[in-house]
Amino acid sequence: MANLVSIAKTVGANRIVPTVSIPYPLGDPSLSLEDQWKLRKHRVGVALDALATEITEPTIFEVKI
């Protein structure tokens, strides 16, 4: 999980899941607590799916909301 995808690619990360922002990688303080929990759960789910996905080259996994 990375908030700076370009840097993650530069350092050679093979699986990249974009996060929300630098100060709040897995949250958004403008959302309600319930919505923040849903956002976090979804992003972590995408990251777990990324780990379970077989890849042959560096891959950026799309986060759809």
What does the model show?
With 65 residues, the protein is mainly α. The chain has helices at 5-10, 33-52; strands at 15-16, 59-60. Strands 1-2 form a two-stranded parallel sheet. The longest helix is centred in the middle third of the chain and has 20 residues, at 33-52. The relative contact order is 0.24.
Low-confidence stretches: none
Total of DSSP H or I helical runs spanning 4+ residues: 2
Structural class: mainly alpha
Please summarize the sheet with the most strands.
2 strands, parallel
Shape: flat
> Strand fraction band?
5-15%
User: Quick one: how many beta strands?
Assistant: 2
H and E string:
HEHE
Strand order of the largest sheet: 1-2
What's the pLDDT, averaged over the residues?
A: 95
**What proportion of the residues is helical, as a percent range?**
40-55%
Termini Cα gap: 16 Å
As a whole number of angstroms, the C-alpha radius of gyration is 12 Å
